[in-house]
Design goal:
Elements lengths: L1 E7 L2 E7 L5 H8 L18 E4 L2 E4 L12 E3 L12 H8 L9 H14 L5 H7 L11 H18 L13
Parallel strand pairs: 1-5
Antiparallel strand pairs: 1-2, 3-4, 3-5
Length: 170
């Protein structure tokens, strides 16, 4: 056993972990953070996606001790002061989910992608989310949600009034 210290969604946590414990087990079983999901447990489905120091990682294949001292962000850490992050809001408004199992990982992948590419095309969004599997939707509403969130984020960066999407003035 070893002591792991990580910052998750802004709070420092310490946990005793085994040498082979993965980050997903720590998040769900020790810290009771439920948005990352146990899916394939081989890094293929994206359901367990989180940000580690701002970079996308599959927590099911990330050794917990390899993120010692790192900052982890999960879906729970995206909202600010009770307000949904634009990705969370747009997934809701554009019906970007059905059962919701893949949604947290999908949103975290989209967050990492939009941090790198704030003005994506449809094809770029599709490519960025190719590592996230969804068995319920046809991905159309998911891509729409990410593109709408990108517009909303661009409006906030440009100083547009809250709630108004860039380019959608009456």
């Amino acid at each position: 056993m070893a002591l792991l210290e990580i910052k998750v969604n802004g709070a420092v946590h310490r946990a005793e972990v085994g040498l082979t414990t993965n980050l997903l087990e720590v998040l769900r079983e020790k810290l009771h953070i439920m948005s990352p999901k146990f899916g394939c447990e081989s890094g293929d489905c994206g359901a367990c996606s989180v940000l580690v120091n701002g970079k996308l990682r599959r927590s099911c294949i990330t050794n917990a001790l390899s993120v010692q001292g790192c900052e982890i962000t999960t879906l729970e850490g995206l909202s600010e002061d009770g307000d949904l992050h634009p990705l969370q809001k747009q997934f809701y408004e554009k019906y970007g989910f059905q059962c919701g199992f893949c949604t947290p990982g999908m949103i975290m992948s989209a967050k990492a992608f939009l941090d790198r590419n704030p003005n994506p095309t449809d094809d770029e969004v599709k490519e960025a989310l190719a590592g996230n599997l969804c068995r319920c939707t046809g991905y159309v509403t998911i891509v729409d949600a990410v593109l709408s969130a990108a517009k909303e984020l661009a409006g906030k960066l440009a100083g547009e009034p809250e709630g108004e999407l860039a380019g959608e003035r009456g």
